Amino acid sequence: MSPWKRPRSLRGIALAAAALTAALSWAPGFASASPPTAVPDKEVQAVAFEDTFDGPAGSAVDGGKWQIETGDNVSNHERQYYTADNANAALNGQGQLVITARRENPKDYQCWYGRCEYTSARLNTAGRFTQTYGHVEARMKVPRGQGMWPAFWMLGDDIGQVGWPNSGEIDVMENVGFEPSTVHGTLHGPGYSGSGGIGAAYSLPGGQVFADDFHTFAVDWAPDSITWSVDGNVFQRRTPADLGGKQWAFNKPFFLILNLAVGGYWPGDPDGSTSFPQQLVVDHVRVTTSNTSRTTG
């Protein structure tokens, strides 16, 4: 919206002319005795966390930003074992992190169902970075195939004290292989967890497939709302009113998680159509916060 409004009187015309004269006084060749006094508000985006995954091909992620989890996941009946090996999570030398799921078990890893069939990786920022509110995004290219389950999500930093789902969980993006054109954004908390989570899906137009290109998945998180978007297209906004009186568990610090799961209750297991290895390629992860500063002209 323009700051200039149509004058409604001769006095208004005179005032507008005076304002225009003051503005023009700062144009080249126009003399003026004093600078403008208006000091506009300006919103500034401050980067709270960023990883662009720069480094030599095959090198590990920055240990000052991420820790690598190990083990299996019995809760979801996933089929992979998360390792700390660079074969499952490493930089590619092109400014990207590659999380690779492989059909292998090189070290006789044991999972909830017996000898594991797959390896993969899961990274988080717990103990290194937490955030309350802001814009949280990751630009990624997801894998493809039945049984693949990539995710970018957050957990409440108090999970060790209050447990899940009381900690709260914000799923920025989840994709399951049998839905190649669709991603999901979901909230989990006390009384609305698991299959009862509060969320919505976003599908690419025209049958496009997420695994064919990079996309930016984001949430804008405020004290009383969380808004999801894909490539800047908003598809969902949730507030405490959506929880039917249940606790809004999202006014506290959360940490970030990136992982690529294989199998589980939701995606189902890989089948004969699933090829390996599969990769979740992450171009960047960024968290920004907004504040309003006073700037002079």
Textual characterization of the structure:
With 297 residues, this protein is mainly beta. The chain folds into two domains: 38 residues, no CATH class; 249 residues, Sandwich (Jelly Rolls). The chain has two helices and 19 strands. Strands 1, 4, 5, 10, 15, 16, 17 and 19 form an eight-stranded antiparallel beta sheet that branches. Strands 2-9-18-11-12-13-14 form a seven-stranded antiparallel beta sheet, with no helix packed on it. Strands 3-8 form a two-stranded parallel ribbon. The longest helix has 15 residues. The two termini are 19 Å apart. The N terminus and C terminus are likely disordered.
Largest sheet: 8 strands, antiparallel
Strand content: 35-45%
Summing up helix and strand content along with how strands pair, one would put the structural category as mainly beta
CATH topology of the largest domain: Jelly Rolls
Number of strands: 19
Uncertain stretches of 5 or more adjacent residues? 1-41, 292-297
Instruction: Give the CATH level 1 class of the largest domain.
Output: Mainly Beta
For the record, the count of structural domains works out to 2
In terms of quaternary structure, the protein is single chain
List the topology elements.
Elements: H1 10-24, E1 41-51, E2 67-69, E3 80-82, E4 89-91, E5 97-101, E6 110-111, E7 114-115, E8 118-120, E9 122-124, E10 134-141, E11 148-156, H2 159-162, E12 169-174, E13 182-188, E14 198-203, E15 215-222, E16 225-230, E17 233-238, E18 254-262, E19 278-294
Parallel strand pairs: 3-8
Antiparallel strand pairs: 1-19, 2-9, 4-5, 5-19, 6-7, 9-18, 10-15, 10-19, 11-12, 11-18, 12-13, 13-14, 15-16, 16-17
